[in-house]
Specification:
It is a single chain. The chain starts with a helix and ends in an 11-residue tail after the last strand. It has about 220 residues and is an alpha/beta fold. It has a single domain (about 5-215), classed as Purple Acid Phosphatase, chain A, domain 2 (4-Layer Sandwich). Helix content is about 20%, strand content about 30%. It has helices spanning about 5-10, 35, 45-55, 75-85, 105-110, 185-190, and strands spanning about 15-20, 20-25, 60-65, 95, 115, 120, 125, 140-145, 150-155, 155-160, 165, 170, 185, 200-205, 210-215. The strands form three sheets. The protein has a seven-stranded mixed beta sheet, with no helix packed on it.
Length: about 220
């Protein structure tokens, strides 16, 4: 696998130190996206992602939802998931079920993968972001679902870049899939029910560079409870 792809995956994921060791967080892989989005050539993305995860060798892998792209589970997508999970058989893996993850238990649990609606570890909450906030206590929450991007200008040219977005106690991760784009903060924040009252969102490049504060249009109130 090219080192460039390793760097991309590394930039778009997040490592946390926990009481159970290092946790690697990955959001929105959308395995099988080729079939749903009109790509006629297999990208091999799921194999490359598995190689990256094995190279990182975390104590815990948390997939923050939308592990697969089709909402259903047809035979080709089932096979892709089997290839992906089988390579991670000796690793502790938790899937936080997203809106695209219908029937994913049928494959995941065969490989020892735990599927949950949400997870709390060391006062940290892991969710996908498409449903109401679970009634649990937490200090920080990590989610996906939005695929946040930000439009930056350079030399008179505008381009969309993937970003991490923080709204109070909530950190939204970009999609790990380099073939997929996302939503601007103003549009994407509307996709998260419990962030409907957010006043502002702080935006960061994957490198950690702070890009500034975005105010979602027509929003009032504050993030969190």
């Amino acid at each position: 696998m090219p080192m460039e792809r390793f760097r991309i995956f590394d930039a778009l994921s997040l490592e946390l130190k926990t009481s159970e060791g290092t946790a690697l967080l990955i959001a929105d892989p959308h395995i099988g996206f080729e079939r749903e989005r009109g790509v006629r050539i297999r990208s091999g993305f799921e194999g490359e992602l598995a190689e990256f995860i094995l190279e990182k060798d975390p104590d815990l892998l948390v997939l923050l939802g939308d592990v697969k792209d089709p909402i259903g589970l047809d035979p080709p997508v089932r096979h892709m998931l089997e290839d992906f999970f089988s390579g991670l058989r000796d690793m502790r893996v938790v899937v936080i079920k997203g809106n695209h993850d219908g029937r994913i238990e049928e494959v995941a649990e065969r490989y020892g993968v735990t599927v949950l609606s949400h997870m709390v570890l060391d006062d940290l909450l892991f969710i996908h972001g498409h449903t109401r906030l679970p009634e649990v206590e937490f200090s920080e929450a990590y989610l996906g679902h939005v695929h946040p991007v930000h439009v930056v200008s350079s030399g008179g040219v505008q381009r969309r870049v993937k970003v991490f977005a923080r709204a109070g106690r909530f950190l939204i991760l970009p999609t790990i899939n380099p073939y997929l784009d996302g939503f601007t903060i103003a549009k994407g924040i509307r996709m998260v029910p419990f962030l409907s009252g957010v006043r502002h969102v702080d935006v960061f490049l994957p490198s950690g560079v702070y890009l500034g504060r975005v105010t979602p249009a027509g929003r009032n109130g504050s993030a969190g409870r």
